[in-house]
Amino acid sequence: MTQQGAAAVLRRGHRRCHDDGHSLVWGRRCAAGFCASCGSSRRGDHRLMPCHHRFCLAEFGAVLPLRRPGHWATRTLGQTRRTAHPHSDGTVFTEAMPITTHSSAGDRDQAFRTRMRSLRCRAGLSFGALAELVRYDRSYLNHIEAGRKAGDRRLAEALDDVLHAGGDLIEAWNREDATRAQEAATRRTLAASLATTRDLMQLAELDLDELHAGVAETAIDYLATAPGPMLMRANELRTDALRRLKERHHRPHERADLYLIAGRLSGVLAYAALDLGDADAALEHAAVAGLCSEYAGDAELAAWVCGTQSLICRFKGDYGQAMSFIEAGFEHVGDGHGTGEARLLCGRAQCAANLGDSVAANLALNEAEAARGRIRQLDSVDGLFGFSHAKELYYAGSSLIWLQGGEDARRAVVSAETAIDLWKAGPAEDRSLDDERLAHIYAATGYVQLGEVEAAVAHLQPILHLPAEDQISWIIKRADRVADMLSARRYAGDRLAADIVEAIRTVTAT
């Protein structure tokens, strides 16, 4: 075969023949092949070794991905060394030698799609050219970079090879695949917990077997733990209770206390579902918690459930229904018994503020403070089922930011910042990390309403750097609102406002 013929085949791909040091070129689209040294095109003359490449590069301008040491490098990256090898017939065969691309720790921490885009652009490859190299559809690769699809490991390996990522793309894909697996496990647990809730709802009576000492611990741990793990723990406890229930292994005098435990576990699941963004699932869990409180004859839990159902409706934007649950909750409030009354009054303030009634909102907050002063008996269970003074102030901040600014905004800022200070100074078991983070957003919102952008940014910065698993649904929703406010005409041309809006959108879009 002539040297010109060799060039034509070489542009299509190659295999290597290791007999006598010859290099055998084998066409990807062509059945012909030849030895670059002796010109033989008979396959029987040589032992052919597949190399798994899509293209090869010699001196003809084609692109060859790197897979492992010893393979040829991509010419377009400008990192190829060329080495001349003399053959037995006196000709010189020129071969490209690989040079590994090293990346920084910052590059390795990038998301898969971000790293893929960076490497593709650095290599000067269009989607069409890259698709030809990795044998994937160009529109599919576009979806990968845009974050609409994840891709599989085979694609990650091919891209890592073609783009000379040195394993960075595979490592990034592995990290994100592990995250996707954890999220899928959380979704499966959420579905399983809902199935258990529906089983409980279908029973005429809930016969539970024994008290679970872990329930009180779960209520406290919830304040400082991501909702996914708490969902799993509460569901495991309640599933065990349901199994014992169906086997009817319980003593008659345990029934009321065990109904109470089942109701509290369902309440934990309601909060976890809401923090994961599934308000409908949360309402189902809360409904069965209310049923359990009725069977247990426990007014304290019944009032707490009504407040939680109102909270879920406020999350959904249904403030009329939210107010109905608040009014129903007052039927279960005992004089001076626990923090239920103060919590319901704070819920009333949130409803009033979202409906634009500043007078009613401030009045309800003042009444909540008075109700706290009347408490003579503490809550039966702390943590998620308690309502600390810091939480009351947090509610004040979260309520008044929905009004028109001015004095309402100023009170919102003071309340939110005081709540943060109380949580930081108080016992660790009373510190609600999610609520503390939201209090920063509420303070930032108040500052934006007051036109104090720098103070708002100071509260937002630590929230925007939280790990993804700590960015609960409430944080995403409330941060998005701050971004909308800073995008208003009054902040046009404000560089600081524009920068923080971009940072918020980056977090909330993932």
Structural notes for this entry:
This protein has helices spanning about 5-10, 105-110, 110-125, 125-135, 140-145, 155-160, 170-200, 215-220, 225-245, 255-275, 280-295, 300-315, 320-330, 340-355, 360-375, 390-400, 405-425, 435-450, 455-465, 475-485, 495-510, and strands at about 15, 25, 35, 50, 80-85, 90-95. A two-stranded antiparallel ribbon has the order 1-4. It has a two-stranded antiparallel sheet with strand order 2-3. The chain is built from 21 helices and six strands. A hairpin with a 5-residue loop joins strand 5 and strand 6 (about 90-95). Helix 11 (about 280-295) runs antiparallel to helix 12 (about 300-315), helix 12 (about 300-315) packs antiparallel against helix 13 (about 320-330) and helix 20 packs antiparallel against helix 21 (about 495-510).
Write the layout of secondary structure elements.
Blueprint: H1 3-10, E1 16-17, E2 24-26, E3 33-35, E4 48-49, E5 81-86, E6 92-97, H2 105-108, H3 112-123, H4 127-134, H5 138-146, H6 153-162, H7 168-202, H8 214-221, H9 227-247, H10 255-275, H11 279-296, H12 299-316, H13 319-329, H14 340-354, H15 358-373, H16 389-400, H17 407-425, H18 433-449, H19 453-464, H20 473-486, H21 495-508
Antiparallel strand pairs: 1-4, 2-3, 5-6
Helix pairs in contact: 4-5, 6-7, 7-9, 7-11, 8-9, 9-10, 10-11, 10-12, 11-12, 12-13, 12-14, 13-14, 14-15, 14-16, 15-16, 16-17, 16-18, 17-18, 18-19, 18-20, 19-21, 20-21
